[in-house]
Design a protein that fits this description.
The protein is about 40% helix and about 15% strand. The chain is α/β, with parallel strands linked by helices.
Amino acid sequence: MKSELNSIRLKIFTRSFDLRLYSYARELFRCFNVPIVRLTDQTADGYFYTMLKDTECDVAINIDEDAFVVNPEAVIDLVEFVIANGYANAGCPDGGGGCPRGGNPIVTNPFFNVLNLKLIRSKFSKEAVKQFDYKSVVKEMEDKFPKEILFSGHNFNRTDYEPYYPFFFWLAYNFKTYYLLSEKHADGISTILYNQNRVAICYHSWLARFYTTSSFVVKYFQKGAGKQKQRIDNLIDETYAVRQMNKPRFSYRDNFRFSTDKMLRWSIKIPQRIMGWPRKWAKWYRRWQEKNR
């Protein structure tokens, strides 16, 4: 790590469901020589609050288990840039860029973020996030957004796409966010994310939730998604080739560990999903109301 960052307490956080994928991804960022935290059984917004509670961390690199680091030096350069320029967050807009989503670009999709937790804590409270009214300032925030980086579908008025939207609305209004450029990978789905110098940081595969799910089952959840394992494995192979690293080979014991971990994750996830249904139904009802006004 660069000497300038020696006084900064840096950690890597990964929200993880599949231990095999996590193991592939972790090997690619072990070289940072900083604490690595695997966050399991966390909600889509709750794990940000878990990071903020960790007062032994000043700056967090938040990276999904299906985002594979291609250039560690480019990541560290970005961390240094975020700190030096007073940014609270750097990440990929959730719409308008190279990610296959048409969400609100004010929000950075949490497959990769550099979060200055020490700075964020100076104003953060869950109540502040809850009370923040994005709709009252949407025009102001849209006017300030760097629209030159937008080239695909997006919607500044979209407010309930994901549970983490309120947190990122509050964050972008109260602090500076640096929006990273991205482009679509040659496989047609994955995203290549770049740092402030337009150097590739990572490849994000998307659809990791279907990594080991058969296409017969997948079609009931997301039509046309198909089985994703081969595509994601190809992306992992490509990343290891770019890094000139040997891809890990897992033993029978490892595979048993992956299977038991997956059963545990599912046993927790299913009740969580059921408990979340009322909120989803309420969201769909609000959308229906807005559409039929």
